[in-house]
UniProtKB/TrEMBL annotation:
This is SDR family oxidoreductase. Belongs to the short-chain dehydrogenases/reductases (SDR) family. The keyword Oxidoreductase applies. It comes from Yoonia algicola. NCBIfam families: PRK12826.1-2 (NF009466). Gene3D superfamilies: NAD(P)-binding Rossmann-like Domain. Keywords: Oxidoreductase. PROSITE patterns: ADH_SHORT. InterPro entries: NAD(P)-bd_dom_sf, Sc_DH/Rdtase_CS, SDR_fam. PANTHER family: DEHYDROGENASES, SHORT CHAIN, ESTRADIOL 17-BETA-DEHYDROGENASE 8-RELATED.
Length: 252
């Protein structure tokens, strides 16, 4: 039976690559995203709806609609995230803090709250929550993002203990810097601020990992596929870094 896979923010960036990887293997893939145009470009085998994950009712409606169409959920991937405010702690704005946590953390609770009873009835399932290496290290001037990503790991480990007796596995993935449009913008902005080239900034960031490069989106997608497969049927409650082994940390 084809896996039934739900992915938040699944029409662009890492989420799109994850969705396409599952679809290529014959899975039924159901995504949400807030980008109308990106949703229109989804390949065959991927169904999507426009949803703001900070809208609790809209997110719940998306989940229930997917469950009605697919008849269940085998894999839930919480991929939605935003960078949040980048300022010293004394300059943090409470509204921006709450928005960062709403996207990066609260949305994961809402989806897990809806999907857990379904997976309990099935006595099977895999939940994968996207954290970050910012959930493993302190990140100066990125307190909202780091706090949310640390919380994702705590949330994941907790629900792993709750859901494990029902045969449900819960893991967190912690990417480092990942190649793509978002990191290109980060490199360009920092290069401009520092008066250097984007290549200089890339080399600075890449030198912080033992493998001296960024992750590729496909490498995140492949780990998702592994964690939701029978090959990982005894892997749960883990926070797994895909970062080339961080030696010197740069917040991403």
């Amino acid at each position: 039976m084809a896996q039934r896979v739900f992915i938040t923010a699944g029409a662009g960036g890492i989420g799109k690559v994850i969705a396409e990887t599952y679809a290529a293997q014959g899975a039924q893939v159901y995504v949400c995203d807030q980008d109308h145009r990106a949703l229109e470009s989804l390949r065959d085998g991927i169904t999507g709806s426009c949803v703001d994950v900070t809208d609790e009712a809209a997110l719940d409606d998306w989940l229930q609609a997917g469950l009605a169409v697919l008849g269940g959920c085998d894999v839930l991937i919480n991929n939605a995230g935003i960078a949040g405010q980048a300022d010293p702690v004394e300059a943090l704005d409470l509204a921006q803090w709450k928005k960062c946590l709403a996207v990066n953390l609260d949305a994961q609770m809402i989806t897990c709250r809806a999907i857990a009873p379904v997976m309990k009835r099935q006595k099977s399932g895999a939940i994968i929550n996207l954290s970050s290496t910012s959930g493993l290290f302190g990140a100066p001037f990125r307190a909202p993002y780091a706090a949310a990503k640390w919380a994702v790991i705590g949330f994941t480990k907790t629900i792993a203990t709750e859901l494990g007796p029902y045969g449900i596995r819960c893991n967190a993935i912690c990417p480092g810097a990942v190649s793509g449009d978002r990191m290109d913008r980060v490199l360009a902005a920092e290069a401009q601020a520092r008066g250097v080239t984007p290549q200089d900034v890339f080399e600075d960031y890449a030198s912080g990992s033992s493998l001296r490069r960024f992750a590729e989106p496909e490498e995140i997608a492949q780990l998702c596929v592994y964690l939701s497969s029978d090959a990982a049927k005894f892997v749960s409650g883990q926070a797994i870094a895909v970062d080339g082994n961080t030696e010197t940390y740069h917040s991403v």
